[in-house]
Specification:
The chain is of the alpha/beta class. It is built from 16 helices and 13 strands.
């Protein structure tokens, strides 16, 4: 799972990863492949792969892929499912022995790239057009495309279909007015209409739906205190004050998916990681996912979260590592990963094929063309944490949307100062 610390028990792979900022389809100009010099042999070497795993299914899938490539290429891969991925990765780099291939969230891209620790190998694997533009942009810095996106997850709106039918509702909401009306109709008998995570990594979807953003198109200026974002946050607060929208802490839940699975909420806003959670923890609940509703302007929006396959510039086996990543991001292997542990393939064609074969993920894939991902700027996690700490108070009126956004803007701008 991606985007919020409370979900760490469900997935350690990318709990606070992700990266790019505003326009999902902004151009990403990759560094010409000829500027990258690879080292080492392509066979007869031993690579290390370090990653944070969401559980046994992901660990088994990664190990199987490594074994298959090793057999095919006459190499060996030491697979390390780190118990404390961030700490172990930092220690490996600090000790001068970074893994040859590793998971990298786009929020970490700027840090690694500016320190010269990341090999910009991506153009050597496949053309950028083979992958979703938003994901390519997530790993592009200063017009250099560094690493190939591994997979991604998008937010969608989950609906308890049993409660929906009992309330006599028809088609799913496609705009905020309908969302508010449906949430009112579903709020009864101790059940709240909609549960949304109390973090920017969930509320940001409302910003995007209203034409708002985190940064300008050039990624040079923060835009948190925009009128679009203010209207979006005020809409969330209005629903919260009415008691038709709740945050997980209000329902004694660790995340919105838990409140939804336990029947405390009739709707939730989560990513495709909820599919596995519902199957394993709440198999009797009947539900469906639909695209996030549009804001007043009719604009569609959602958030996306992603990892890439990082290769360190200090590796002595970059030739083999690039060959390995080619295998890991092939159409066939991406589908194997998707079927094994529920992630969405980063290759456009693979994601479409996966969605066609698995209708339950179609709503999540549908948001990709207009998805927006969290801020990659170094140090932003601390700034976001200050914002997140105030979200739950929106329901009581103890937090003011305008003040929250102004503070977020000011704190974020401080990160860009020399």
């Amino acid at each position: 799972m991606r985007g919020t610390k409370v979900l760490a028990s469900l997935t350690l792979a990318g709990a606070l990863v992700t990266g790019v900022t505003t326009g999902a389809f902004a151009s990403a100009h990759a560094t010409p492949a000829g500027k990258v010099t690879l080292t080492g042999k392509t066979s007869g070497v031993k690579l290390t792969l370090m990653f944070g795993s969401s559980g046994p299914a992901e660990t088994a899938a990664v190990k199987a892929a490594a074994a298959a490539w090793g057999k095919k290429s006459h190499n060996k891969v030491d697979v390390i499912p780190a118990s404390n991925f961030t700490q172990q990765l930092d220690e490996a780099f600090a000790g001068g022995t970074p893994p040859d291939v590793f998971y990298l969230g786009s929020q970490q891209l700027e840090t690694f790239a500016k320190q010269g620790e990341l090999l910009p190998y991506a153009p050597l694997v496949a053309p950028a057009k083979d992958f979703y533009p938003a994901l390519v942009k997530a790993y592009t810095l200063d017009k250099t495309w560094y690493c190939v996106p591994k997979d991604f997850s998008n937010l969608a709106l989950e609906i308890n279909t049993t409660m929906w039918k009992a309330a006599g509702l028809g088609a799913p909401p496609t705009n905020w007015s309908q969302l508010e009306a449906d949430a009112k109709a579903l709020t009864r008998n101790g059940v709240v209409g909609l549960d949304v995570g109390n973090t920017l990594d969930r509320l940001g979807a409302f910003f995007a739906e209203n034409g708002g953003s985190y940064m300008n198109k050039q990624d040079t200026k923060f835009t948190f205190d925009s009128s679009q974002n203010l209207q979006a946050l005020q809409f969330v607060q209005s629903m919260a004050k009415q008691g038709i929208l709740a945050f997980p802490p209000q329902q004694s839940s660790g995340w919105a998916g838990e409140a939804f699975g336990l029947g405390k909420a009739a709707m939730a806003t989560e990513g495709n990681w909820i599919i596995g959670a519902m199957k394993s923890s709440y198999p009797s609940v009947k539900w469906e996912a639909v695209p996030m509703p549009a804001g007043p302007s009719g604009k569609k929006g959602t958030l996306t979260f992603t990892n890439c396959w990082g290769i360190p510039s200090a590796s002595k086996n970059t030739a083999a590592a690039v060959n390995f990543v080619k295998f890991l991001t092939s159409f066939a292997q991406q589908l194997k990963f998707a079927n094994a542990f529920g992630v969405l393939p980063s290759r456009n064609a693979a994601a479409q094929a996966y969605a066609k074969a698995n209708p339950s993920v179609a709503a999540f894939v549908a948001g990709t063309p207009y998805a927006m991902a969290p801020v990659p700027t170094v140090g932003f996690s601390t700034v976001q944490g200050q914002f997140d700490s105030q979200v739950a108070n929106l329901a009581t009126g103890g937090a003011d949307p305008a003040t929250m956004l102004q503070q977020l803007q000011s704190n974020a701008e401080a990160l860009l100062r020399p």
